[in-house]
Amino acid sequence: MHAAIPVAGGAAGAEQESGELRMNHGSDDGTGAEASSEGAAGAPGGGVYDWFRRGVRLLEERHPAAAVQLLARAADAEPESRSIREALARAQFDAGQYAAARESFRAVALADPSDDYAQFGWGVAAARLGDFESSAEHLALAVAMQPGNKHYRAALRQTRATLAARAGAFGPLQPGAPGYSAPPEDSDGS
């Protein structure tokens, strides 16, 4: 399922497909050139902006683990850059590094609490880690900021349904359901 999700205030689009958060805006800078030279001590060639652009391109091309490498270097060089940190968070999420993604989305959200996408990312990463209480909190904030975003609402509904199911709101678990424990048998033989 492809679905557009606003990124960084809606300046670009993103997609969530089978657990991936991906950019869907044009990635070609028109030059077709890709810097591949290595700098000193194994550092990638170019500067922070080059690392950012190449990292985003790798993310768009579905190479999130490689993107994490470049974007982490860029984030280390520019720790206050929310754009770099958000791209790093998306790459970490797509690479299955949910704890790291949660922390990166958290850093963006703490720097700008009104960033709905950072709240959304924090919420979905928390859900992947099984922290549905935190997930519901941040997804609810994202929905409150962008009530028309169907993807935010769907993620919040799913998290709330998980919380309700775990609380037994849908009745007792049926035999064969995950987490079902059979009732103890009577020992008096009746």
Strand order of the largest sheet: 1-2
Q: How much helix, percentage-wise, in residues?
A: 40-55%
Number of strands: 2
Average pLDDT, rounded to a whole number, is 80
The computed structural class is mainly alpha
Describe what is shown at a glance:
Helices cover 52% and strands 4% of the residues.
Question: How would you describe what is shown here?
Answer:
By secondary structure, the protein is mainly alpha-helical. A two-stranded antiparallel ribbon has the order 1-2. A hairpin with a 2-residue loop joins strand 1 and strand 2. Helix 1 runs antiparallel to helix 2, helix 2 packs antiparallel against helix 3 and helix 3 runs antiparallel to helix 4. The N and C termini lie far apart (53 Å). The N terminus is likely disordered.
Key attributes of the depicted protein:
190 residues, elongated, two-stranded antiparallel sheet, 4% strand, 7 helices
Reconstruct the topology from this structure.
Layout: E1 14-17, E2 20-23, H1 48-60, H2 64-77, H3 82-94, H4 98-111, H5 116-128, H6 132-145, H7 150-166
Antiparallel strand pairs: 1-2
Helix pairs in contact: 1-2, 1-3, 2-3, 3-4, 4-5, 5-6, 5-7, 6-7
